[in-house]
Amino acid sequence: MSKTSQVELPDLGSNVKRERLSRNWSLEDLAKICGVSKAMLSQVESGKVNPTIGTLWKIATALEVDLNLLLQGKKEILKCFEVGRSNDLPLLHENQSGEVTIKVLSGKDLLGKLEFYHLTFAEKAVLSSDAHYPGSEEIVTVISGKVSVSVRERSTILQSGDVLRFASDLPHCIKNCASGNSVLHMIVRFPSEKNQ
Q1: Distance, CA of 114 to CA of 141 (rounded, Å)
Q2: Which of 116, 59, 120 is nearest to 82 (CA)?
Q3: Is the pTM of this model over 0.90?
Q4: Which helix H or strand E contains 189, and what residues bound it?
Q5: Continuous H helices in 23-134
Q6: Structural domains in the chain?
Q7: CA–CA separation, 121 and 175 (whole Å)
């Protein structure tokens, strides 16, 4: 009699459900995007059926994830572990005079979804932005210094440790009010429908 080792089966249903919920999608949303029936998706998530490779491929493509991610067991899930070294971070923007420097902290896969930036403002520097995609928001945290943020007729002064969340689908402006540099972290969050 031969001994067989216990092989951990993929936690397919939980993996699909986790990815779907992380996008705030209903079963119906995923069904429309991937072309697999809502009933079939429900059975996949509950572990009642083993879908074909074709069905899995459609689901993974709709979720924009690697098929292997859906096939991982419970112990294997580590979707991302990406280190960005300070000197290697992409430089998104630098005024000709070097007044405002913007480094991209988020990975390329997050562009247009959730973007994270490190901004350095020289004394009296100004960054004016046109309206972003409808429904977009920015969250600005002042790491050091002092800035004024204006969105249309509203404005406020932020100092080290302060945070502001605002609709960035309107023209907006950030001005350095400190005597010296100001450093900010900025998150730009786009609405989910932009990415569909």
Answers
A1: 15
A2: 116
A3: no
A4: strand 182-189
A5: 27-34, 38-46, 53-63, 67-70
A6: 12-76 (1.10.260.40), 86-195 (2.60.120.10)
A7: 8
